[in-house]
Amino acid sequence: MNEDIQFILDSTKEAMEGAISHLSKRLLTIRAGKASPAMLQSVMVDYYGSPTPLSQVANVNTPDGRTISIQPWEKSIIADIERAIINSNLGFNPMNNGESIIINVPPLTEERRKELVKQARAEAEDARIGVRNDRKSANNDLKKLEDVSEDAVKNAEIDVQNLTDIFIKNVDNTLAAKEKEIMTV
Hints:
Layout: H1 3-28, E1 44-47, E2 50-53, E3 58-64, E4 67-72, H2 78-87, E5 95-96, E6 101-104, H3 110-144, H4 150-183
Antiparallel strand pairs: 1-2, 3-4, 4-6, 5-6
Helix pairs in contact: 1-3, 1-4, 3-4
């Protein structure tokens, strides 16, 4: 097989793996009943005038399955952290004891579970779109190759389609596992 074709196939596979990796990270932020520090990954705190990820201004841990504990490195920013959590629209009500912030993660209602499944499906669709865009990009790159036979290009396009099918199936499996996790009471 031509080196250029192999390079295109390898880079396409790497890009598709990146889409799956991104999907996995995004699905971690969608809560599924038990508390996890990843739930607060998207929270940005106004830290001396600049938006900063919560994990860079405080220790975030889970003492048990229903509680998230946030220990700020500076007590002066407790109010800013509380405000950021409330504004992040995650549905949490933080409690401040003067030293740290505690979030009790309530059990999910059926309606909220369905909303989270919709959110997970939207993330999965974004990953599918990413995989399809990688396929389109690879096919365009294959068509631009010079001094390569048409048969070699056609065979490479079939290989790209097979890669696409594998990664779309991987997205579907990842989504199915997350849906099951969310819907399990």
